[in-house]
Each structure stands twice: as C-alpha cells, then as structure tokens.
Automatic annotation (TrEMBL):
Protein name: DUF5615 domain-containing protein
Domain DUF5615 span(s) in chain numbering: 5-117
Pfam families per record: DUF5615
Lineage, opening ranks: Bacteria, Bacillati, Cyanobacteriota, Cyanophyceae, Nostocales
Length: 124
C-alpha cells in the first residue's frame, strides 16, 4: 500500500500550511509548483488523478459536485479531501492529515470524498 500523495489547489496554498506539511514529510505538490494556477476544478482533479494525488481543497461545493459527476460517469479520481476554510488552524489541518495518512493508503482514497474535519481533534 502506498502513502497518500497530496495536490493542493489554489484555495490551500498558504505558505505556513505548505511548510508544515513538508516538514511533516507529507508528499505535497501545489498548483504553483506545477504552473496550473487558474485551471478549472475539473481539470485540476483530472491532473491530480493522472499523477496519483488526492486533491486537498477548501472548495467544498465544487468538489462535492465533481465527485458525484465523476462517479455518475464511472470515472475514477485519486481522492478528494475537503475542509471548511478558515475554521481550522494550520496545526489542526496538519494533525488531521497526519491521522488520515496514517490510517488510509492511496489505494483506499480512490473515488473517496473525505471531510478532513472528521480527523481533526476539536479540542486541539
């Protein structure tokens, strides 16, 4: 089983967040790293899937719709991880992602829509 690899969309490219993820040895690529800023969400999800990366975003509405659209046409994706923007600190997001990565493989994430809040200790 391989470890979950992440692709951070434009919503999640906070320098402190990226630094925390990298310092924790999470495999992270951002839209800026691969010059994919301003691509539509469906193209971001397709690219992430081609690279074997789960997309991490605060854009819950659009990616929930895309998840359902992909499943409806039997198109696979490498996973979608969503979180409500500005509700959780960098530390809480890191803690949640580390818990997710520790309990799920990249293979487990295929076609999954995960709300990271389920992995975040609210008393943190």
């Amino acid at each position: 089983m391989s470890q979950i690899r992440l692709y951070l969309d434009e919503d999640t490219v906070e320098k402190s967040l990226i630094k925390a993820f990298c310092n924790a040895n999470l495999d992270v690529v951002t839209v800026a790293d691969v010059s994919r800023q301003s691509y539509p969400d469906d193209q971001q999800l397709i690219w992430a899937t081609e690279q074997g990366r789960a997309i991490y975003s605060y854009n819950r509405r659009d990616f929930c719709c895309l998840h359902n659209e992909f499943l409806a046409i039997e198109r696979n994706h490498a996973g979608i991880i969503l979180l409500q923007q500005q509700r959780y600190s960098v530390g809480q997001q890191l803690q949640g992602l580390l818990k997710l990565v520790a309990t799920h493989s990249a293979e487990d994430m295929v076609n999954q829509l995960v709300f990271l809040s389920a992995y975040i200790d609210k008393s943190y």
